[in-house]
Amino acid sequence: MKEEIGTFVKTAVKSSAKIFLLSSIALFLGFIFNLFLLAFCFPEMKSIASNLGPMPIARAGGIGAILALIVIVLELWPIVLLIIGFAFVFPFLYFLGIKKYLLGRELGNLVSENKAWFTDNISKTLSEMIKKRVGSEKIDNWGKFISSKLKELPTFLQEKENWPKVLRFILQTFLKKIRIAEFAEEVAAAYEQKGTQDISVLEEIIKTSLNKAIDKQMEPSSPLFFYIVFGANFGIFLLIKIFL
């Protein structure tokens, strides 16, 4: 078990490094791309700046210079907004977009490649957690009881100090991806259909539901957010060139 966790964590760390590297490259390229866009917007920015009149108050120094700077920023707010948006906001959004896409893809690959490990260990951990609660709580409705305990899994994972933080983070991200609430309801419904109060069958039910969730929810998605950001970025540039 420890060796398997160690191997899994090493793979996860490599994936994390890959995600950070590629996201950082996206940030850098996004910054360079937007510098080019800003350069092409220079005529429009120059036109806006030409409307700014002289600032005699700036000669007073001190407070006068500060007030003059504030006035300049207020007068040239379109340019300030353009520079902030293109030089900082959009590159950061590219970073987030690529990071989100790669995180989903790497998580999907990680889970798919270690599907047996995931389903075996999570189902075993969950069933053992629920078994421990059976004797300490009064159970009127087994379906609701199982569902409520499964929904507590993210909190339970945080308390698993014998598991590496990287592993706990991956499992929590995985649970968000498969929609833990829906998963819990599905397991509870399957258990009730068995028509038994034998908690020993729960592990197999959880494993079956996990396999279904992995096949259904862990398929790689397109980098939609990245495309939206790029469209907005270039679209704003075109609007500036057309209307200013």
UniProtKB/TrEMBL annotation:
Designated name of the protein: Uncharacterized protein
Protein origin, superkingdom: Bacteria
Keyword set, alphabetical order: Membrane, Transmembrane, Transmembrane helix
Membrane-spanning segments: 20-42, 54-73, 79-97, 224-243
Keyword Membrane annotated: yes
Native source organism of the sequence: Leptospira hartskeerlii
